[in-house]
Amino acid sequence: MSKSTIQTPDTASVQTQPAIRTQDLVKTYRSGKLETKVLQGISLAIPAGSFSCIIGPSGHGKSTLMHLMGGLDRATTGEVSIAGTALSTLSDSELSELRADKLGFVFQFFNLLKNLTAVENVEAAMMFSKTAPKAAKQQRARAHELLALVGLAEKADAKPSQLSGGQQQRVSIARALANDPEILLMDEPTGNLDSQSEQQVLDQLFKIHATGKTIVVVTHNSDLAAQAEIIFEIKDGSLHQAVQPAATKV
Ligand code: ADP
C-alpha cells in the first residue's frame, strides 16, 4: 500500500471538521442586578463550504449567536470552534488575528468608514491581517480586484455617501473578502435594501458561495432562506430546528 492512501485519524478529522461548531453555547447579559439569558445552550455544526441561514423571530438571539460564532463577543459558557480551534483558548490578540484572516463580516447597515472611498474601505480591512499583501501598491490592486468582483470597478473612488444602499453593501462584501476568509458571516445583509439592490447583493452571495466559501446569513428573507443548504431556526435563545431545504427539493 502506498503511503498516500493511509489516512491518519488526524487527517480524517481535519477533512470532516465543520467550519463552525458551537457546543452548549450560553450567553447571559447582565445589567446591574438584572440577568437576561439570551442564548440557552445552542449546539450546532456548520459544514465547511455550506450556505446556511439562521432564521427566527426578532429578539430571540440570532445576532447574539452570530456575534459569538464570529468571535466578536465571548460566550458566558459553552464553546465556539472555528475549523477546530476553540475560541475560548485564544487570547484577545489571537482572536483578533483569527477574525481578520478566517472570517469576513457583513452587517445590515454596511458599517463603512464614511470618510474613506470605496477602495480605501476595502484596503482598511487588510491592516490587521497577517496574510494580506503588505505593500500598499498590492493592497490597492487587490482592493480594486474585489470591487470589480462585486461589479463596482467604476465606483472605487466614491465615498459611501455617493453610493446607493445596494452599492454600499457590495463594497462591504468586497471588504469582507479582503483577506480571502474561509467563512463569511452576514447579519441581515439585505435587510436595508430595495428589491433590485437586494437581488444584486444575493447574486454576489451565490457567486461567492460557488467559490467554496462557507456562508452563514442571519435573515428574515424567506426567498434567501429557501435557497440555503441548512436553515437553523432560533426561538427563545434555543435551536428550535435545523432543516435542509435544498436536500428535500426534487
Ligand atoms: P435577534 O438577532 O434574534 O433579533 P438579538 O440577538 O439581537 O436578537 O437579541 C436577543 C436579545 O438579547 C434581545 O432581547 C436583546 O434586547 C438582548 N440583547 C442583545 N444585546 C444585548 C446587550 N448588549 N445587552 C443586553 N441585552 C442585549
Q: How does this model look, in words?
A:
The protein is an alpha/beta fold. It has one domain (19-248): 3-Layer(aba) Sandwich (Rossmann fold), CATH 3.40.50. 34% of the residues lie in helices and 26% in strands. It contains nine helices and ten strands. The protein has a six-stranded mixed sheet. Strands 2-1-4-5 form a four-stranded antiparallel sheet, covered by helices on one side. Strand 7 (183-187), helix 7 and strand 8 (214-218) form a beta-alpha-beta unit. The longest helix is centred in the last third of the chain and has 15 residues, at 195-209. The relative contact order is 0.17. Adenosine-5'-diphosphate is lined by residues 29, 36, 38, 56, 58-64.
Small molecules held by this entry: adenosine-5'-diphosphate
Q: How many beta-strand elements? A: 10
What is the molecular shape?
A: globular
Average pLDDT level: 89
CATH architecture: 3-Layer(aba) Sandwich
Task: Tell me the number of helical segments per DSSP (H or I, 4 or more residues long).
Answer: 9
- Give the biggest sheet: 6 strands, mixed
Give the oligomeric state: single chain
Neighbour order of strands in the largest sheet: 6-7-8-3-9-10
Number of domains: 1
Q: What's the level 1 CATH class?
A: Alpha Beta
Estimate the helix proportion, in percent.
25-40%
Say which CATH homologous superfamily is assigned: P-loop containing nucleotide triphosphate hydrolases
Q: pLDDT under 50 segments (min length 5)?
A: 1-14
- CATH-derived topology: Rossmann fold
Q: Roughly what fraction of the amino acids lie in strands? A: 25-35%
Distance between the termini: 41 Å
Rg calculated over all Cα atoms: 19 Å
Order of helices and strands: HEEEHEEHEHHHEHEHEEH
What structural category characterises the helix and strand content? alpha/beta
